[in-house]
Amino acid sequence: MSFDDGHPVRIIGNERAIGLLASSIEQGRVAHAYLFAGPAGVGKGLVARAFAKALNCEQGGTVPCDACLACRKIDHGTHPDVLWFRPAGAMRMIRVEQVAEFLQAAAFKPYEGRWKVFMLVDADRLNVESQNKVLKTLEEPAPGTVIILTSALPEALLPTIRSRCQRVAFHPIPREAIEQYLIEHRDADPERAAIAASLGRGSLAAAIEYLDERAGQRRRALYNMLAVGGFEHFADLQAMALGIEQELVARRETLKKELADEQAELLRGLDAAAQKALTDQHNAHAESEFRREVDGLLNAIALWYRDVLISKETGAGALAAGTAALINADYAELIAAQTTARSTDELLAAFDTIDEVRKAIALNVKLANSLEALFLKLDLLRRAPVA
Questions:
Q1: Counting beta carbons within 10 angstroms of the beta carbon of residue 116, is it exposed (0 to 12), middle (13 to 18) or buried (19 or more)?
Q2: For 303-308, which contacts have Cβ atoms below 8 Å and span 24 or more sequence positions?
Q3: CA–CA gap between residue 82 and residue 17 (Å, rounded)
């Protein structure tokens, strides 16, 4: 059996993980704690929500109906027994007060559902002290409690945390499955679906984003910049870095407003403390999306240099028409033309530079300043136009 979550991005792939969870419900052997471990963007959160719905669905069984009151409440984030805790704030940590709220809520039995389900998203963003506090609850949870930790970096969790959880492994979704989904459910033509699935790198959500025309325009602007190096003056480079930051910040603030507008009626019916808690969830989600987009930008730059390196090492002429070896196959000719503009050592150094900037952004260095440093280290000021 499989979950068929009501989320706009359908769950595909990771059938083994989903089957394990469905089987645990069917056999009445639901664990008190799970660790959903796997790369970002492969459906860990979607499966966690579907699992919570299946556990509390009024229809019973292993597949949530998506229509009963319990399922609808979970979808809207208003079920009193299904609580999410996500990294928040500039440092993207699960904060001490969130841990305290989790510990307090976890001490009680379910209020209206069969199960109380807690989701600690990106649990590796708990500091050591908080992990130790969570550990005590993992060891002695209240009856009818399921705690789900999700993480793309499970080794950052304490060994004692990992040992108390049943590990459910998630893997990148096969490119072919993503491509088929985009054709059948997103009306993508085969060529666009193939490119988007390749760029998604195992993430359906990322692949869907690449179908958006605005995403395509941003990608063209980015790759033209990397190929041509169109910064004649430092001021131009600064303007590009600042423009990227402003665009991403604007999208973050728009998402916050959309979330607030969507649940405005619900917010009015809550007391001040509950309003703040829900608003904090909205802000944390918007910040998470912002960080994900920043990471996507850096990944796109890394993929460009990866393709140039592949083209350089395997023969630019053979790749000029585009082959499966390239992620950005639709830019094959431009990529092939870059093989003489960079040495192998320069291309390899680019990956280290991107990683350094990624770490700086994680430490809350201003995005525009980080991108300025990245563009300078990639020598985008001195690049000559491609003939």
A1: buried
A2: 303/199, 303/327, 303/328, 304/222, 304/223, 304/226, 304/328, 304/335, 305/226, 305/347, 305/350, 305/351, 305/354, 306/351, 307/331, 307/335, 308/335, 308/338, 308/339, 308/342, 308/347
A3: 21
The residues pairing with 151 across neighbouring beta strands, listed in sequence order, are 37
Say which range, 6-20, 28-42, 105-119, 277-291, has the weakest mean pLDDT. Answer: 6-20
**Per-residue pLDDT reduced to its tens digit, 233-274:** 899 999 999 999 999 999 999 988 888 887 787 777 778 877
SS (H, E, C) the chain: CCCCCCCCCCCCCCHHHHHHHHHHHHCCCCCCEEEEECCCCCCHHHHHHHHHHHHHCCCCCCCCCCCCHHHHHHHHCCCCCEEEECCECCCCECCHHHHHHHHHHHCCCCCCCCCEEEEECCHHHCCHHHHHHHHHHHHCCCCCEEEEEEECCHHHCCHHHHHHCEEEECCCCCHHHHHHHHHHHCCCCHHHHHHHHHHHCCCHHHHHHHHCHHHHHHHHHHHHHHHHCCCCCHHHHHHHHHHHHHHHHHHHHHHHHHHHHHCHHHHHCCCHHHHHHHHHHHHHHHHHHHHHHHHHHHHHHHHHHHHHHHHHHHCHHHHCCCCCCCCCHHHHHHHHHHHHCCCHHHHHHHHHHHHHHHHHHHCCCCHHHHHHHHHHHCCCCCCCCCC
Q: CA-to-CA distance for 239 and 123, rounded, in angstroms? A: 36
Of residues 49 and 232, the one with the higher pLDDT is 49
CATH class of 15-169: alpha beta
